[in-house]
Amino acid sequence: MDLHLKGISFLVFLLLQLTAINMYAQEQKQATIRLSFLQTDTTKTCRATVFPDSLPVKGTEVHLYVKRMYGLLTIGKAVATDENGVAEIKFPMDLPGDANNMIVVIAKIERNEIYGNAETQSTVKWGAVSFSESYNWGNRSLSASREKAPMLLIIASVSIILGIWGTILYLVFQLFRIRQSGRGIKIQPGTA
Amino acid sequence: MEQDAHPGFEYHNLLTEEEKKQHRQEMREVVLRPLRHTGIAGKLWIAFLVIVFLFGCYAYYLQLKNGLKVTAMRDYASWGLYISNFVFFVAISLVGALISSVLRLTNFSWYRPITRIAEIIAVSGIIFAGLIIIVDMGRPDRVLNLFTHGRIQSPIVWDVIIVSTYLVMSILFLYFPLLPAIAYCRDTLTEKPKWQRWIYKKLALGWTGSHTQWRLMKKSIAIICILIIPLAISIHTVTAWLFATTLRPGWDSTNFGPYFVAGAFQAGTACVIIAMFVFRKAYNLQKYITEVHFNQMGKLLVFLCLIYAYFNLNEYLVPAYKMRGAEGKLLNDLFTGHYAPLYWSVQVFGMALPAVLLLWKKARKPLPVAIIALAVVVAAWFKRYLIVTPIMLHPYTPIQNVPANWAVYFPTWIEIAIVSASLAGVLLIITVFSKFFPIVSIWETLENEGIELEEMDNPEK
User: Fold this and answer.
1) Residue B80 is assigned to a structural domain of this protein
2) The model's pTM
3) Is the CB of A146 less than 8 angstroms away from the CB of B150?
4) Which of B197, B205, B217 to mutate to test the interface with A (most CBs of A within 10 A)?
5) CB neighbours of B377 closer than 8 A, spacing ≥ 6?
6) Terminus of chain A with fewer CB atoms < 10 Å: N or C?
């Protein structure tokens, strides 16, 4: 009886181990994302193709992001791949890029039951031109550097600061005068 | 405006020189009594404040060691308890200008015994406003960079300039009228330790009470009185601009400058009422801080509550009529959402109820008016919290792709300890000051009653 129970326990244990190994093997499935970019005169589209084990896969959600200074900017909603493993996501026309108008695009599969997480990134020259001739770069303005502050602001602030601190210095000078006028006079206890 | 002379003004004009001297001596004895002796309650109070302050210093040490991550401030709520507290301190510091300057220039005179209370609140408030800003900095060792690398286009640089200027001016405003009192302490508190007498001697600047010294002092006070009004308005307007120049719902308002100034006068006046009540009771100053002062300050508080209510209407009702986008979400959160209990408590207990209750003369008696003022001050502190925090959490661009706890803000114990220490610090400065110098200005009070100390110091003239 005891031997029989031990045998059953061993079989159950073996079965659980096999199930776990199988699940682990499933989780281990790697997905590869390939990014390509399509552009017409009026549209920009990111195409993400998902290949697990080099075969396209259907119904996997792909999220698209753009790298910004402090984090990732979400582009549209997640799109599921079709029977060819392709997810196409519309890209905004007016997103600014870096100095060379380059944009880093990131495609991600997030917390997928079969493939877990996967991501790829690619750089594309899709940045909208943010430089404007009319902006007068290098001129004095509120948004310019310290050296390029508007002259009117400098004159106004320096005049106010000098006026007030000049008065403060005058008041401190009055304190010296008070001390000076008390010198040589014998202090009578109880004055003041 | 009509001179509202003290009821005793006429009476004191009839006094003989000897009787005037007697009055002066009597007041000196009463006002200097707290300087000579500190009771057990006073010692316990100072010890309590020191403990809270030191605990806050320890919390700040932890913040310096580990960085701002020990606070609850994150990418979105990057301003929290510290900045709320900064705005509160700047607000209460305006009261020195209101009580000592506006009332003086408009020929009122009943305020004279409470000028020093208002001025020391102003000085201690502005000292800790400056310190709490440094506490809010991730790298306080770089504070001097604000002066050496600051852009004059930035409202933060304007704030640094105005806070330091107002601090210096407030200290001068406290110091000039204090000179005769320091001289009297120098001459009479001979039982005090040597170091304390040395301080009195140095600070008194050889005051002898000569006509020249009185003239120089009064002339300087008159200059400060005029200059401190635009400075006081500027300091809180610039503080308001720190917010209003930022494109955020709730702050994107042209009303912000006067709204802040009105709130500051209201909060500061309430602080002075509480301090008057405490000093009157603790230092037995009933003869000099009278029910007349509480009555007048109560009336002033009603007036300031009504002005503040008017600005609140503009600040909340106009955008609420439109309920536009992110602004609408913020207002809904304030009116009926997460912040509603705090928002309505602040509006009712800090503004509406005081304005109504203080219309009755009975409510303007010392104890009731002090309780109402306490409610106003507590509400004023939470009001600043409501001005800062909910708005940080309602940006125009949605909060996304960040950990869930970044979308909420509740201060950590370190922030609470540091802010408590700053409040204790303000109270400590006021308390210690009142143990070193008379908290009621002798010459200003007696002058109000027709007894000119300048003439008494120079009898030959």
Assistant:
1) yes
2) 0.80
3) yes
4) B205
5) B267, B270, B271, B274
6) N
Is residue B4 situated within a structural domain?
Answer: no
No. of H helices and E strands in chain A? Answer: 2, 7
Q: CA–CA separation, B197 vs B256, rounded Å?
A: 47
Q: What is the ipTM of this complex?
A: 0.89
Give CA torsion, residues B388, B390, B396, B398, to 10 deg: 130
Mean pLDDT score, B96-121:
87
Domain A29-130, classified CATH 2.40.30.10, yes or no:
no
Which letter, b or e, does each residue of A49-71 get, where b requires 16 or more Cβ atoms within 10 Å of its Cβ? Answer: bbebeeeebeebbbbbbbeeeee
Q: Which residues of B touch A (CB under 8 A)?
A: 75, 149-153, 158, 161, 165, 168-169, 172, 175-176, 179-181, 183-184, 187-188, 205-210, 212-213, 216-217, 219-220, 223-224, 227, 231, 400-402, 443, 453, 457
Contacts of A128 (CB under 8 A, 6+ apart): A93, A94, A95, A96, A97, A101
Residues in A closer than 8 angstroms to B158, CB to CB, are: 157
Q: With bands split at pLDDT 50, 70 and 90, how would you rate the model's confidence at B403?
A: confident
| Domain boundaries of chain A, sorted by first residue | 29-130, 146-180
Q: How confident is the model at residue A132 (pLDDT cuts 50, 70, 90)?
A: low
* Distance separating alpha carbons of residues B358 and B294, to the nearest angstrom: 11
Q: Find out whether A174 and B216 touch, Cβ atoms under 8 Å.
A: yes
Would you state the structure tokens that stand for residue A105, as one six-digit string? 């695009």
Cα–Cα distance for residue pair B3/B43, rounded to 1 Å? 41
Q: Which residue has the higher pLDDT, B275 or A8?
A: B275
In a domain? residue B3: no
Side-by-side strand order, sheet with A31-39:
A31-39, A44-52, A86-91
Residue A40: CB partners within 8 Å, gap ≥ 6?
Answer: none
Residue B461: its pLDDT value, please? 46
User: Domain containing B272 — which CATH number?
Assistant: 1.20.1630.10
Amino acid, res. A118: A
Closest CA to B219 of A175, A130, A71, A146: A175
The distance in angstroms from the start CA to the end CA of chain B is 31
pLDDT(A166) > 90? yes
> What region, left, alpha or beta, does residue B258 occupy, with left being phi > 0 and alpha being psi -120 to 50 degrees?
alpha
CB B227 within 8 A of CB A165: no
Q: Establish if B59 belongs to a structural domain.
A: yes
From CA B86, how far away is CA B236, in angstroms rounded? 11
Nearest CA in chain A to B168: A168
Cβ neighbours of residue B187 under 8 Å, at least 6 residues apart?
A187, A189, A190, A191, A192
Question: B382 is in which domain, residue-wise?
Answer: 9-457
Q: Which residues, in sequence order, are bridge partners of residue A72? A: A67
Q: How high is the pLDDT of residue B13?
A: 61
Count of domains for chain B: 1
Q: What are the φ/ψ torsions at residue A75 (nearest 5 degrees)? A: -110, 110
Give the rounded distance of the alpha carbon of B6 from its chain centre. Answer: 26
Rounded Cα distance, B81 and B418, in Å: 10
- Residue ranges in B206-255 assigned as alpha helix (H): 211-244
For chains A and B, CB pairs below 8 A equal 108
